[in-house]
Amino acid sequence: MNPTNASLSMKLEELGLSFMAASLESYLADQSRNENTLLERLTDLVDLEYIPRKERAARTRLKISGMPQYKQLSDFDLTWLKGGLSRAKLEELSSLAFIDRKENVFLLGPSGVGKTHLLLGLGTRACQNGFSAYYMTCHDLVETLVRARDQNRLKRKLDWFRKPNVLLIDEVGYEPLTSEQAHVFFQLINTRYECGSIIMTSNKSFSKWAELMSDEAVATAMLDRLLHHSHTLSLQADSYRMKERLKVGAVGFE
């Protein structure tokens, strides 16, 4: 590298533009850009820094999201569903406009219809597009909140859960909540009300939530806040997991 280029590379490093500095020599050697306009060449130069930084930030958001695995919405087989989610609706959710509007998404249906896949797919897409996301099962979430309350740290913990752009709560309804669990869960919902999106999966219809929460008043107040700005999808299908087993021949027919 000649002295002028080396000096420029050093200045880029000092400015914290490490990707641009590392790629400067190859960028300058690429004669194919000579026919581009100045604006196009500047855009290409800035992209040397912008694109890797964006990808690195997305990887960081995914890593701290707590998601057990990353799913792609494009891998979800809509043809398996018998109702509850149209392609147009999936494309609307994929735009992530609901996060900007601080709206909630409910994915309801029996076990195995792909609720968690969609939740993780939306969470993955959010992280890849500049939004922060955090995942917990309902059981782990309420246990965390109860423990924080017992340690006089509930407000601090609720403030922490308020920060992500989208909170992913999986498996609501698989275990009934005690009265104390339902009350701290309500406090979480109330804290995030109109402040950030929630994506939630549940195998229970809303009519069963009073029983689930062990308190009709708490269930009503919770649903009032959750449903105020929301999208509710009641998925209908045979087990999505059974579909995958059939595909590899693990289950046969008589």
What is the fold's blueprint, element by element?
Elements: H1 3-14, H2 18-29, H3 38-63, H4 87-94, H5 97-100, E1 104-108, H6 115-128, E2 133-137, H7 138-150, H8 154-162, E3 166-172, H9 179-192, E4 197-202, H10 209-213, H11 216-226, E5 230-234, H12 240-247
Parallel strand pairs: 1-4, 1-5, 2-3, 3-4
Helix pairs in contact: 1-2, 2-3, 7-8, 7-9, 8-9, 9-11
Please tell me about this protein's structure.
Helices cover 54% and strands 11% of the residues. It folds into two domains: 3-63, no CATH class; 73-245, 3-Layer(aba) Sandwich (Rossmann fold), CATH 3.40.50. The chain has helices at residues 3-14, 18-29, 38-63, 87-94, 97-100, 115-128, 138-150, 154-162, 179-192, 209-213, 216-226, 240-247, and strands spanning 104-108, 133-137, 166-172, 197-202, 230-234. The protein has a five-stranded parallel sheet with strand order 2-3-4-1-5. The protein is built from twelve helices and five strands. The chain has 254 residues and is of the alpha/beta class.
Summarize the structure.
By secondary structure, the protein is α/β, with parallel strands linked by helices.
Main attributes?
elongated; disordered C terminus; 12 helices; 254 residues; 5-stranded parallel sheet; Rossmann fold; 54% helix
